Inverse folding.
RNA sequence: GGGUCCGUGGUGUAGCCCGGUUAACACGUCUCCCUGUCACGGAGAAGAUCGAGGGUUCGAAUCCCUUCGGACCCG
């Protein structure tokens, strides 16, 4: 992998660049489309490309549990397996340490929306998995068997999957974790980062992951440590504070400490209103489930805001999802009325129509950000 | 002519035999939520004078009588 910066903004930390991989180039800033189980859910790989997606991210834990990395490797790797010709990433499974652990226990995401009375302190373990020095043991949600995943295991799996860019195994800490827990978790994530670098035998690009929660000292410490290692790029993970301004501030701390010559990937962020802010804060790429996940729950993102296509009022609405949208769903004449009907009738076509539109909309937003960055407006 | 069973929110049911706080459940409806993914998910709300009328009782969806509607059996 090769990263070249074409332009640095004078108004913000944003920059314009190109990531070159063995499977093609990606202009940055770029949105990475989520394909957890080697599929952009409800779409074919060709359709994802037509919706404007250039770079996909699949998941180590999910593919390890099903179908197993050996099946993917035997098929010729992720690209051939899912018939995707463009660049790909795999996430390391570090997020699953959180989502199957404290995230599940406390019913919270990475962003703390309401105050949580309990806080996570040193020595505490989640209910369904145990986190140790060498990795994490958890129960498979598929067949209930115990599975061990650590930095070595994650790298071995990601090598077999064969994405162009892979991530170091980390612990994504909960918003409820206190300073001491977050600091100790961070030290362990740093030790795991070294193990990942030593374990990797392929030419795949490896990104190290910065953690540190909402704490400025920890974020800066983590960025300095990870930034000093021989990674090809950097992931910024973990929780992102209590609100949007806290999130961009936090990204700023990290970006200030990271080397400038390598790409920065913001893990798991990207509501429409976040995209420009995150680019200005210095992110080159970012992945997010929002366009595809919300589509399957009936939410369309449009230039005029969100629509919930489950609501019966749209049965009478014969407008396209977004009058300003040029995607093949809107342009072909599919109406809100029809898509609303499909959702209420539980027709699966509803899911793919909305997924396609949402992806096109989000990719268009990022295209716009890139254009304005080129013109010096951001 | 004789007999049996059923009738509870939009839909399907539970409760009835052994009467007792705001009639329960599923689906549906409505509102809100979902940021390194859980389509088949989370939280909340609205919605039933328990077919109708009468009786017994401190108290009836529950017991008794009558009546209406539906299904069925025997002649």
């Amino acid at each position: 992998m090769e990263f070249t910066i074409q332009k640095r903004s004078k108004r913000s930390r944003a920059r314009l660049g190109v990531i070159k991989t063995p499977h093609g180039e990606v202009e940055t800033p770029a949105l990475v489309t989520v394909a957890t189980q080697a599929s952009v859910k409800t779409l074919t790989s060709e359709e994802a490309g037509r919706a404007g997606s250039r770079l996909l991210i699949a998941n180590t834990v999910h593919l390890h549990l099903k179908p197993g990395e050996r099946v993917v490797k035997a098929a010729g790797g992720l690209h051939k397996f899912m018939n995707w010709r463009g660049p790909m990433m795999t996430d390391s499974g570090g997020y699953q340490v959180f989502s199957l652990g404290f995230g599940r226990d406390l019913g919270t995401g990475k962003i703390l929306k309401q105050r949580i009375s309990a806080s996570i302190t040193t020595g505490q373990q989640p209910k369904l998995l145990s986190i140790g020095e060498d990795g994490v043991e958890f129960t498979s949600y598929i067949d209930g068997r115990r599975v061990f995943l650590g930095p070595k295991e994650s790298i071995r799996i990601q090598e077999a999957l064969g994405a162009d860019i892979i991530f170091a195994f980390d612990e994504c800490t909960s918003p409820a974790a206190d300073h001491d827990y977050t600091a100790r978790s961070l030290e362990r994530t740093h030790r795991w980062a070294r193990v990942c670098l030593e374990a990797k035998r392929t030419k795949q690009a490896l990104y190290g992951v910065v953690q540190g929660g909402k704490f400025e000292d920890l974020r800066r410490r983590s960025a300095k440590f990870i930034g000093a290692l021989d990674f090809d790029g950097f992931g910024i993970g973990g929780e992102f504070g209590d609100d949007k301004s806290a999130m961009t501030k936090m990204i700023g701390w990290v970006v200030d400490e990271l080397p400038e010559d390598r790409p920065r990937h913001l893990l798991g962020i990207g509501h429409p209103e976040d995209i420009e802010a995150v680019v200005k804060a210095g992110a080159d790429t970012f992945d997010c489930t929002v366009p595809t996940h919300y589509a399957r729950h009936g939410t369309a993102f449009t230039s005029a805001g969100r629509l919930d296509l489950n609501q019966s009022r749209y049965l009478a609405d014969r407008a396209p999802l977004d009058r300003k949208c040029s995607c093949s769903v809107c342009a072909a004449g599919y109406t809100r009325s029809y898509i609303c009907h499909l959702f209420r009738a539980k027709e699966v076509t509803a899911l793919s129509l909305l997924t396609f539109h949402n992806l096109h909309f989000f990719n268009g937003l990022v295209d716009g950000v890139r254009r304005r960055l080129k013109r010096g407006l951001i």
